[in-house]
Design a protein that fits this description.
41% of the residues lie in helices and 23% in strands. It has a six-stranded mixed β-sheet with strand order 1-8-7-4-5-6. Strands 2-3 form a two-stranded antiparallel sheet. A hairpin with a 4-residue loop joins strand 7 and strand 8. The termini are far apart. About 14% of the residues have low confidence.
Length: 167
């Protein structure tokens, strides 16, 4: 009897683990329709991403992990941008715009930085509340990977290279 319960427990645990894996490795769902308001006052939509592999990073100046990973995001952008890679860093609605502008200017962020004043962009992208949250979008505008917390940048680079090579 105990073995039967143990086997059932293992089966349930395996099913739950598989479910969690499928949830975190999002497969290929369309990136949500949203408009990013950039620091320079211009805007970009999700539709503008098509044809490029894009990293969308939700972050905050008050998030120590976000600040710590930003040099890696800059290096990733600089490494792949000439090959059709783009980056949009979306500051959370609670982040004071003056802090975001100061951070972007002092760190010389080379990619697009948006401020999600209303929180609508974070809501559209799965009600993002935890930072950093990073989404990798392929050339067809599909989310292929989601990271909560800092990504493994070596693995991220392999994924970007694979996606850039796709037609």
């Amino acid at each position: 009897m105990a073995i039967k319960h143990w086997a059932a427990g293992v089966a349930v645990a395996a099913f739950v683990a598989l479910g969690a894996y499928v949830y975190l490795d999002t497969g290929r769902s369309a990136a949500p329709e949203s408009t990013f308001v950039l620091l320079d006052g211009s805007s970009q939509t999700t539709a503008d991403m098509k044809g490029k592999v894009t990293l969308v990073n939700f972050w905050a100046t008050s998030c120590t992990t976000c600040v710590a990973e930003m040099p890696e995001i800059v290096a990733t952008y600089n490494k792949y941008r000439a090959k059709g890679f783009d980056t949009v860093a979306v500051a959370m609605s609670y982040d004071p715009p003056s802090y975001v502008v100061n951070f972007a200017e002092t760190r010389k962020l080379p990619f697009k930085v948006a401020i999600d004043n209303t929180g609508n962009v974070a809501k559209a992208w799965g009600d993002v509340r935890l930072t950093p949250s990073t989404f990798i979008v392929n050339k067809r505008g599909e989310i292929v990977k989601t990271y909560v917390g800092a990504p493994d940048f070596a693995a991220l680079h392999l994924l970007i290279e694979k996606l850039l090579a796709e037609g």
